[in-house]
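User: My instructor asked us to take a sequence, write out its structure as tokens, and then describe one feature of it. I'm not sure where to start. Here is the sequence I was given:
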Amino acid sequence: MSALFSPLSIGKLQLPNRIVIAPMCQYSAEAGCATDWHLIHLGQLAQSGAGLLIIEATAVIPEGRITAGDLGLYSDETEAALDRVLTAVRRYCAMPIGIQLGHAGRKASSQSPWDGGALLSPEEGGWQTVAPSAIAHAPDERPPVALDEAGLDRVREAFVDAARRAARLGLDLIELHCAHGYLLHQFLSPLANQREDRYGGSLENRMRFPLEVFDAVRAALPAALPVGVRFSATDWVEGGWDVEQSIAFCQALEARGCSFLHVSSAGVSPLQKIPLGPGYQVSLAAEIRRTVKVPVIAVGLVTTPEHAEAIIAEGHADLVALGRGMLYDPRWPWHAAARLGAQVQAPRQYWRSQPAEHKALFAGAHIGQR
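Assistant: Let's start with the prediction itself. The structure tokens for your sequence are:
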């Protein structure tokens, strides 16, 4: 039996296989509201046969959006817009769907990637960014405003409010975004956090605000709803956040009831030197997995079914997430199941497409015709 296509539980959430569709920003919302693009995008991914779909980074507050086109979950309007999309998708698919909640911090107020991705000025429609410290992401950018106690309270409560909205929408899982140089990662990294209060300095202090956010979200939700964290295991910059600190962070999260850990890297500094290559972050996931008992998700340039299978079979991670690869091939799990001799769930409208050489590929498929 394929390890990749074996079932797994995240808390009480049952997954049919170990393939996760990673959250991927679409920069196509309108005033934070999901649009028909999200219906098209999530609709096709929900038919992919993956075990879990996680909706893109979703801002918990308007100024926490990376771009003006970011999805949000901070008002009745944004909640209703996402509800419309989810209702349509669920009508035809039972795939578990989660959501990633985040705040971009000093990396907010950006152009969309296809427009260059640069920091927007107020004249261009940008807004004032906030961060742990008044340190710009790049030397030529205007600095953010350091969050004061009232600002920290506002952000913390925004995460809680968004999480409650996600629960009302019936989402199956919540992932807090502590990766890729966004706000919660900024608190963790000494490159971005140079505060002199109880939220800066020592590792314990730098972890404090992300852990407070986790605690507040976890306490606000039903115990059966899994809450996990995606984080950057290293900044890939000397003197920055690293694996040893990540292990301490993960152990603190596990002690607080964290349901899963999604291991990525980088994003907090333009000085990063990433050793790109197939599965370049898998070893980071493996190091984390050796120190915790909760499920660990590996992600990053895993493109072939055989590689994904080996990651699970050899115990480097419990699940494998794909992002860009899934955009390129939304049927990746079908093709992986065919290669690995496994079965996958497919919509009955597509059962007739099952290849002659893979007659057992689609679970439960049966076709009759006069």
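For the description part of your assignment, you could build on this observation: The two ends are 36 Å apart (CA to CA). Try explaining in your own words what that tells you about the chain.
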